[in-house]
Amino acid sequence: MAALEVEGLTKDYGEVLANDDVTFAVDEGEVFGYLGPNGAGKTTTIRTLMGFQSPTSGGGTVLGHDVTDESDLIAAKRRVGYLPANPAFDEGVTGREILDLHASIKGDERRDELLETFDAPVDRKVWDYSTGNVQKLGLVQAFMHDPDLVVMDEPTAGLDPLMQRAFNDFVEAEKERGLTVFLSSHVLSEVRRVCDRVGIIREGRLVTTEDIEDLLHRTGKFVRVRVAGDVSASAFDLDGVHDASCSTTDGAVSEPAASELAESEPADPDTPRVDGPVTECTFTFTGDVNDLIAALGERRVLDLDVEEAPLEEVFMRFYGGSDA
Ligand SMILES: Nc1ncnc2c1ncn2[C@@H]1O[C@H](COP(=O)(O)OP(=O)(O)OP(=O)(O)O)[C@@H](O)[C@H]1O
């Protein structure tokens, strides 16, 4: 049985068609990422699945319960954890009181363990919380009754990189335990480690659902490389290079870029300094990484960044048009 199903879901707010005939399913034990740029319609789908708003047409099920039938959905809610976008807790009470209330409604199987992982300051009143601490409290609340399915709207928003890593480790461990997770994000690189599959939504329409490995294989890596010398884009004329663009800075001595200096003062004595021009090239790479290493090996490489292709790039290359 699918843990979560969306069937022909349409939500028309009047001026905006926020979900347009959206259909997909999340299997039991799967971690499914719902990806899309700001305003794509992710929150609309999630709020409808949680029964907070009615669809214009279509609908769905959560753990087999109809999301458009309030009394039917209540039966599922006990087994579901939910983290909304920008969780809004009562600011005048402590985190502990919020968790106590949640425990009295849905249960408390693993609060202490979760507080060790997410480290929210439960003895303070919520008005003293930073954005990140509110998010951490929301995560503890979403998981503390040991649900079968957890639905999270942008769960890593507001978390620092260390806490994002802790979150990823935690979700991976939960997946091993058989938990089903549905989470939204607007950053492909953020979901790649934890998700089995993703659905991509743009302007209210689901453009694809596919295995994350297949998607990453197709979308490739975004490469930014700085090399010594005046190099043209044809230097990277390899199978799998797309949209290569190079720009050369002339000059006797190349200093680190101003943006780098701002981030990493004082200057690193190991930063290569070069007499003569420096070229920065950017491209997307979907080919054999050994070919790229060989091509780079022919140059004096000063700096290299390789990262997941941004979602806007994925849209431009595969789904026609930019959504940056
Ligand atoms: N209650 C509402 N009334 C009218 N329009 C709405 C309402 N809620 C959302 N919208 C609009 O519907 C569209 C989809 O919004 P939604 O919040 O679902 O997108 P999202 O993908 O979650 O975006 P984000 O990543 O920015 O949170 C947007 O154009 C938004 O402005």
UniProtKB/TrEMBL annotation:
| Sorted UniProt keywords | ATP-binding, Nucleotide-binding, Transport
Q: Does the keyword Transport apply?
A: yes
Q: According to the UniProt record, where is the region Disordered?
A: 247-276
Q: Does the record bear Nucleotide-binding in its keywords? A: yes
Boundaries of each ABC transporter domain copy? Answer: 4-228
Concerning Gene3D superfamilies, the annotation shows: P-loop containing nucleotide triphosphate hydrolases
Per its record, what are the GO molecular function terms? ATP binding; ATP hydrolysis activity
Name of this chain's protein: ABC transporter ATP-binding protein
According to the record, the segments passing through the membrane are none
| Coiled-coil features, chain-numbered ranges | none
Signal sequence span is: none
* Record family assignment: Belongs to the ABC transporter superfamily.
